[in-house]
Design a protein that fits this description.
The protein is an alpha+beta fold. Helices cover 34% and strands 29% of the residues. The strands form 8 sheets. Strands 3-30-29-28 form a 4-stranded antiparallel sheet, with no helix packed on it.
């Protein structure tokens, strides 16, 4: 129970305070269990009140400690009663229900004005209401609670407003969804029409492709016939060129003989040589006693190797290309392959000029004769074959080797002599006029893997699996000099065009340069961990190309003794490389069966 303390106040203030006191009593509603609910009311100060208030003395409050002890005793009592009520299984009394008190008229009006934001009207209403209530002009009927129908109407109105707002939001959402659906429907219709159009175009293209395929198939026999005619015409053209060169050489020889006869007649010397000597010219051939190297008097122009790159690639064979030879006077190269055939190509277009098959095993080497009218090939069938372009046939087959032939080379001056090397540890010098072996060069204790003539001389260089490089005299068949220094099998040897330097590459990836006159090593290069399969000097003698097992061609500067550039293009090991006579381009062949032109 709450008690209110007040002081004596005059007239209007007393009446107002009594009204508030009456209001407080009416607002206190007693509920079950003896609980009272008080409504808090705030008194607003009025500026026009001139009454002087006095302070009300309040009794001293009970000390906090005593209040805490009393509170603890009350809580303990409540817990004891609760335990006693449930100890013997007695049901706990129901908790009192809290009901909502109906809203009185002034609160209803006040809440409505607050909701509408009518603050000035609310202030005027409160002043008028409190004045009338203080004067007693408001009856009990005026301050009764608002009927439930009004409260319910207000609640329904609020719900209606909330539902209207939600309906507006849903309308916006449905409008956006409808527009999205319309857009998707248009896109679907567009894609459907596009798909139908694509299907129609596909059907039309398929029909056109089938018609073109049948049309191309009808032309295939004619194309094959034209291809055959073209190859035949190119072969005939090449044969005519070779025949023309041969006839021109004969005419030049006849003119030279005529000049010699005229000079002999003018000198009134002895009679011309006997016919027996003339007849013996074909039956016996001799190596030239002395040859003049033209590169000593007119050195070739240095090629810009550092700016060279891959120009063209030709799929030349069905198997690895093992050797390449360049025609002495024309832009023509010949390739030998593991597919048991050799082919002749025109550069830079890559036209197939000629092809032949005659060996029964893979080819290892190929070489042009100095006149360009013959070709020599070496094979694993232990034979060396000489091909004549004038007759388009094999003019000789030399089969004195007992194992596979690894290399073959022509003399630089005459077509009558060639040399070959074999796995049987020997090299042979061949007299092509008599079609027989002139000398057998013995001395190596392992396979002879590479052979070449010293330019414009009668000496032959060989590289062997016994790690040595040997120089031989073809006239006597004796070894002149042997170079030691390699630590693994030698795969390739080649001469500089001046004839004073030999390059040799071995299976360890080491390339060594040998000075023929000083009989000493000049320099050594390392191409990496891969074997060096081929070496070749350019006509100027400055650049040395080394074909390696990693598919790269490394170019070294022989004057500075360093690597200058690396050419990458082959997808497998490079087996051979060579330059043309003018130093304008280089060709390489590899195990990827491709012929590549670099310039």
């Amino acid at each position: 129970v709450s008690r209110f303390a007040c002081c004596s106040v005059p007239g209007a203030l007393a009446s107002r305070f009594c009204a508030l006191q009456t209001r407080a009593r009416m607002a206190a509603a007693k509920v079950e269990g003896g609980t009272y609910i008080l409504e808090e009311v705030t008194l607003e100060e009025e500026d026009d009140d001139d009454y002087e208030y006095k302070e009300v003395e309040v009794e001293e409050e009970i000390e906090d400690e005593e209040a805490d002890e009393a509170l603890e005793q009350v809580l303990a009592t409540v817990r004891t009663k609760k335990l006693e009520g449930t100890a013997f299984g007695q049901p706990q009394p129901p908790r009192p229900a809290v009901t909502q008190r109906p809203e009185v008229l002034d609160d209803f009006i006040r809440n409505a004005l607050l909701k509408l934001g009518m603050q000035e009207t609310l202030d005027a209403f409160q002043r008028e209401w409190y004045r009338l209530s203080g004067e007693g002009k408001l009856s009990a009927l005026d301050v009764d609670p608002v009927p439930d129908i009004y409260v319910r109407n207000q609640q329904l109105r609020n719900q209606l407003q909330a539902l209207q707002a939600e309906a507006e939001q849903m309308q916006d959402v449905s409008t956006a969804a409808k527009s999205t659906w319309d857009r998707y429907r248009k896109e679907r219709d567009f894609h459907r029409m596009h798909h139908k159009r694509v299907v129609q175009e596909k059907k039309r293209l398929v029909a056109d492709l089938r018609r073109l395929k049948s049309h191309c198939d009808s032309y295939e026999p004619m194309l094959n016939m034209m291809r055959t005619k073209y190859e035949t015409a190119m072969k005939e053209k090449m044969m005519l060129r070779l025949e023309r060169d041969r006839l021109a050489a004969k005419v030049a020889a006849f003119e030279e003989q005529m000049k010699q006869l005229e000079a002999a007649r003018a000198s009134d010397t002895a009679s011309p040589p006997a016919a027996a000597t003339k007849r013996g010219a074909r039956s016996s051939s001799r190596l030239p006693d002395s040859c003049i190297n033209p590169y000593h008097s007119r050195p070739a122009t240095e090629a810009p190797m550092e700016r060279w790159g891959l120009s063209k690639t030709f799929q030349a064979h069905n198997a690895a290309i093992s050797a390449i030879a360049v025609h002495p006077s024309r832009p023509v190269v010949a390739t030998a392959s593991d597919d048991c055939s050799w082919k002749m190509w025109g550069l830079p277009g890559g036209e197939l000029l000629m092809s032949a098959e005659g060996h029964t095993d893979w080819l290892s080497s190929i070489a042009f004769a100095p006149s360009g009218a013959q070709l020599a090939t070496g094979s694993a069938d232990c034979s060396v074959k000489i091909w004549d372009f004038a007759t388009s046939r094999c003019m000789a087959s030399l089969s004195e080797h007992s194992q596979a032939v690894w290399g073959v080379a022509y003399h630089d001056v005459t077509d009558n002599f060639a040399v070959s090397c074999s796995m049987d540890h020997t090299a042979k010098v061949w007299d092509l006029v008599a079609a027989k072996c002139k000398h057998t060069l013995r001395g190596h204790v392992d396979s002879v893997n590479s052979v070449c003539f010293q330019p414009y001389s009668n000496n032959v260089c060989t590289g062997s699996g016994d790690k040595t490089v040997s120089l031989w005299d073809c006239r006597s068949g004796l070894c002149i000099q042997t170079f030691y220094g390699h630590k693994n099998s030698i795969n390739s040897v080649s001469f500089r065009v001046t004839g004073d330097t030999i390059a040799s590459g071995d299976a360890d990836g080491v390339v060594r340069l040998w000075d023929v006159r000083m009989v000493a090593e000049k320099a050594a290069f390392t191409v990496g961990q891969y074997p060096c399969n081929a070496t070749a000097f350019d006509p100027s003698g400055k650049w040395l190309a080394a074909g390696c097992d990693d598919g790269q061609v490394r170019v070294f500067d022989t004057e500075l003794g360093e690597l200058r550039t690396t050419m990458t293009g082959h997808s497998d090991a490079v087996q051979c490389c060579t330059f043309d006579r003018k130093g304008q381009w280089m060709v390489t062949g590899g195990s990827d069966a491709t012929l590549r032109l670099w310039c």
